[in-house]
Amino acid sequence: MKYPMTKQGAEALEVELKHLKSVVRPQLSQSIAEARELGDLKENAEYHAAREQQGMVEARIRDIEGRLGNAQVIDVTSIPATGKVIFGTTVTIANVDTDEEVVYQIVGEDEADIKQGKLSVTSPIARALIGKHEGDVAAVQTPSGVVEYEVVEVQHL
């Protein structure tokens, strides 16, 4: 099964993967080699720490490769803007009751970071917004009840 991912999200993972493979992995190999030279491996804390870190790095490399392998990369800038909310768009919404505006980019689950305004496509707000057009109102079920948001602007950034 393919999972949607923005072009920026895929590029960030590729940069991290390259760094892990070309910088971190060789450094760890060197640390392990140096620790081995210190002698008895049973009581060699440096060796065990380096091996443990190597295991975590290798797991992260496999994780990133898996995510990229299962990603359907979507470059929203190559899709004509129609004012419709789709995956990857940046959406300005206004709370109908308070007029408070917020801006979110709708991204894949792995990329979501609410502090950066990146909203998971599987979140209740994103699910309510997908398919709406500028001027439409989306009702979002929240723990404190239904909140209505008007779609103010949809951008393909």
UniProtKB/TrEMBL annotation:
It comes from the Bacteria. Belongs to the GreA/GreB family. Residues 82-155 form the Transcription elongation factor GreA/GreB C-terminal domain. Keywords: DNA-binding, Elongation factor, Protein biosynthesis, Transcription, Transcription regulation. GO terms for molecular function: DNA binding; RNA polymerase binding; translation elongation factor activity. Necessary for efficient RNA polymerase transcription elongation past template-encoded arresting sites. The arresting sites in DNA have the property of trapping a certain fraction of elongating RNA polymerases that pass through, resulting in locked ternary complexes. Cleavage of the nascent transcript by cleavage factors such as GreA or GreB allows the resumption of elongation from the new 3'terminus. GreA releases sequences of 2 to 3 nucleotides. GO terms for biological process: DNA-templated transcription elongation; regulation of DNA-templated transcription elongation. Coiled coil: none annotated. Residues 4-73 form the Transcription elongation factor GreA/GreB N-terminal domain. This is Transcription elongation factor GreA.
